[in-house]
Amino acid sequence: MPWILVGSPFIMEFPNCTVVDHPLVKHKLTLMRKAETSTASFRRLLSEISMLLAYEATRDMKLANVEIDTPLAHMAAPMLEGKKVVLVAILRAGLGILDGMLQLIPSARVGHVGLYRDHKTLESIEYFYKVPQDLADRAVIVCDPMLATGNSAVAAVERLKHSGPASLKFVCLLACPEGLANFHRHHPDVPIVTAAVDSHLNEMGYIVPGLGDAGDRLFGTR
Ligand code: URA
After folding, report:
1. Which terminus of the chain has fewer CB atoms gathered within 10 Å of its CB, N or C?
2. CA of 42 relative to ligand 1 center, distance in Å
3. pLDDT in tens, 95-144
4. Is 206 touching ligand 1 by the criterion CB < 6 Å?
5. 146-187: per-residue pLDDT in tens?
6. pLDDT tens for residues 12-55?
7. Is the CB of 215 under 6 A from ligand 1?
8. How close is the Cα of 212 to the center of ligand 1, in Å?
9. What is the CATH number of the domain that holds 174?
């Protein structure tokens, strides 16, 4: 098998992309990449990394001071302000990221967008769309582990923009230069948070070196 270096210089072209290159994220991602990693471990690791990605993706959440009493004193202390954030999972692999993020943001509202890839054209076809009705005034974070062609992410964000959310972000586990370019061309205003940017997309639409089919590995369907 050829060796492939991970960490692309193309990232310089996408200023709206944050790579969470924390040692714990890198270590856990390496375990996920290994072909022999079990379904149970893959699922647990995705959930753990998603918590760390959520930490980064929510860094700019608004706070407001509230008056509280500690056992020792009265004080003004910060709490999250405004309407609850909305997490939108792109089915089906996005469910794996959703799990971890909900552990960190348990009161988040949840939406689902069902998109499948036409295996010939690699275009995204929508088969399900259900999100909270009142997206205006809410921050929306769209989740999908793999930003491969970027077509699903582009389509999901396009659809969500029509509902006029207060802000939109896209969180993935792995991206590649082709997916980043496609997404950035359509949505330069939407920040991306990812754990890594891999070398390239192959002719089958898989990220290389990647980790294979995230949905299959998450649900043990292959
Ligand atoms: N979807 C996946 O699950 N893996 C890839 O490498 C690309 C798209």
Report:
1. N
2. 14
3. 999 999 999 999 999 999 998 877 778 778 899 999 999 999 899 999 99
4. yes
5. 999 999 999 999 999 999 999 999 999 999 999 999 999 999
6. 567 799 999 899 999 999 999 999 999 999 999 999 999 999 99
7. yes
8. 6
9. 3.40.50.2020
DSSP 1: -
Within a domain: residue 214?
A: no
Query: Known catalytic residue: 121?
Result: yes
Residue nearest ligand 1's atom 4 by CA: 213
Range of the domain at 144: 3-209
- Report residue 30 as tokens: 């390496």
User: Alpha-carbon distance 85 to 98, whole Å?
Assistant: 13
- 216 found inside a domain: no
Cβ of 90 closer than 6 Å to ligand 1, yes or no, is no
Catalytic-residue membership of 216: yes
Whole-structure pTM value: 0.92
| Total Cβ atoms within 10 A of residue 153 | 31
The finding on whether 213 has its CB within 6 A of some atom of ligand 1 is yes
